[in-house]
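Run log, item B.
One chain of 83 residues. Sequence copied directly from the ordering sheet:
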Amino acid sequence: MNPLDYDRALYYTHRSQWDNLLILMVRTKDHFLSKKIEQVLHAYYFSHDYSIIERRLYSLFRYIDHANEMVQEGISEPNYFTS
């Protein structure tokens, strides 16, 4: 988890910098963040219903808020692939 990724996602979303958000989606190591960004971008470019776009954005914001809380508490993501 890189806390800067969450700040960047918020900034790019706020400024409607969709190209930079796409680059962040590809480069981040957080797969959940990447998936949430993908859903927002897909809704933004292909949906004609604003309520779908709004739902996807709120979902992204909720995840970013949750991830930031976990970072502040010092909880890292679980390591599922330990041997």
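Observations after the first pass:
- The longest helix spans residues 50-73.
- Residues 12 and 68 are 16 Å apart (CA to CA).
Flagged for discussion on Thursday.
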